[in-house]
Amino acid sequence: MTGVDATHINYVFYASQSNAQVNAILATQGLASTAQQGCEALRAFNTEVNKRWEHYGRTFVSLDGPSANKGSAQDTGSCHTPFFQGQCQLTPPDPPCNRAEAKVIVAMHPAIVLAPIADTALYDELAKDHIIVIGGGEGPESYYDQANGYLYGLLMDGTRQALYTAEYWCKKLNNKPAKFAGPDVTTARGWGNPPTAVPVRKVAVSFPENNGDEVFKLSVDYFKSLVTGKMCNTPGGVLELPYASDINTAQQQSQNAVQQMIQNHITTGICWCDPIAPVFGTAAEHSQGYFPEQLIIGVGLIDYDQLGRLYDPQEWAHAFGVSDLALSPPFAKSDAPQWFVDAGDSGQATVPDNAISPFFSLMGSGFQLAGPKPTPQKIHDGLTSAPLEGGWALTHDPHMILVGFKAPSPYTAAEDTREVYWSQTRPSEVDGKPGSYCPVNGGQRYNLGEWGTGDPDAFDPAHNGC
To answer: In angstroms, rounded to a whole number, what is the distance separating the alpha carbons of residues 223 and 228?
Structure first.
């Protein structure tokens, strides 16, 4: 197998180019690490994956990028861990640049690439060149199937996400009054029948569509097909609102989208998008005095407490729905700080590190399960044959996501969901600060087909304790 010899498993950690505007937004909630902190995390996690996973006498070795991509030569203070520093801008994305960087990585001959944040062009090019890559996930199931064992995701694939969202919509929300919206939507705009009545829900979905890339649109289209005939029939259909992932135009794009939502009498919005988009979307809604229901669907880590605090609080007071994430433990008891301690690293873990450690965990597990003579096929066989872990049926623990690589989603890890709503006052388990997602029914998690009927038990402090 490429990148593997008798003593080494060579891998590449791809660090995307940061964006100052995005980092400034994330930093308000402690979600932007410094370059040195990021380097220290890679150092600690490399130590940990070599310490705690079986690798049959081999050592996982992080490769350094060449020239401008040389991670160890970046401005990372006293830390000089090797990694690949991407030079392609993320917003707006630059697919040709990403494909060119993928070719540089291919020439380094790694066994596997860990790329938590990257344009889909990077993933596609690496998989085409038969280099295993682990990304964030969220593409449609077909996107992973066509990569044939060379592309994996930690998050839920878009096809499965569409099924969960459609099931929740059809069983709990469809053809019912939009009672969780603000008073402008429920009565003042006169959208009901009669005009004084709360209007029946009408939904819009916003999603990124860049340079002809249909990764998100395919999943949104599938959701639309499910709720307009295959699973239920939604009055008014589904309004699709694509946007370009460009932070420089995000404010104007959001204003235009909100105008379309108002013109179409949309009561309920879904953001099938990145976690920064709602910063601009909710601000635009507030500026136009528009307070629709915000239906959460678990995409883009929008259902993470600290990210929820980035969004306009008066708008997010109407946020509820499906969350892929589990109830978080206190930060000190989460994986990243415990890995730092176990690795004996002198650095200090940060909250964003918990989004990086699972990539190392999956890499370690893949090679452990593949046995002493790993191949891409043996890695896939090992992952798909491993039993499911976590989940409500197995643990009755709200902290445990159901994780596994089983059909029909054999290339993405996350399997189940929970129901939540936003509380501006509930302290987060992560940092103890107010503003977090309230878990409904004790944080019970649901697999496909398990959502019950009836109205969501949202915004019910007496029952849910939020």
So the answer is: 9
Q: How far apart are the first and last CA of the chain?
A: 52
What residue ranges of the chain have pLDDT lower than 50? none
Taking the C-alpha atoms of residue 238 and residue 270, their distance in angstroms, rounded to an integer, is: 10
Q: How many residues does the chain have?
A: 466
Q: What share of the chain is helix, strand, coil (3-state, %, to 5)?
A: 40, 15, 45
Q: In sequence order, what are the beta bridge partners of 422? A: 437
Instruction: Tell me phi and psi for residue 424, to 5 degrees.
Output: -75, -15
Q: At what angle do helices 35-52 and 335-343 cross, to 10 degrees?
A: 70
Domain 159-323+416-464 in the same topology as domain 8-156+330-395: yes
Q: For 444, left (φ over 0), alpha (ψ -120 to 50), or beta?
A: beta
Whole-structure pTM value: 0.96
- Quote the tokens at residue 53: 């996973």
Q: Does domain 8-156+330-395 have CATH number 3.40.50.2300?
A: yes
Distance CA 150, CA 153 (A): 10
Of 409, 376, 377, 382, the residue nearest 132 (C-alpha):
376
Cα–Cα distance for residue pair 329/338, rounded to 1 Å: 12
pLDDT of residue 211: 87
- Please state the domain extents for the chain: 8-156+330-395, 159-323+416-464
Joined together, the tokens standing for residue 4 give 């593997």
State the Cα–Cα distance between residues 308 and 28, nearest whole angstrom: 12
CA distances from 66 to 48, 88, 111, 232 (A): 25, 15, 17, 53
Q: At what angle do helices 357-370 and 335-343 cross, to 10 degrees?
A: 70
CATH architecture of the domain with residue range 159-323+416-464 = 3-Layer(aba) Sandwich (3.40)
Q: Are 243 and 209 in contact (CB under 8 A)?
A: yes
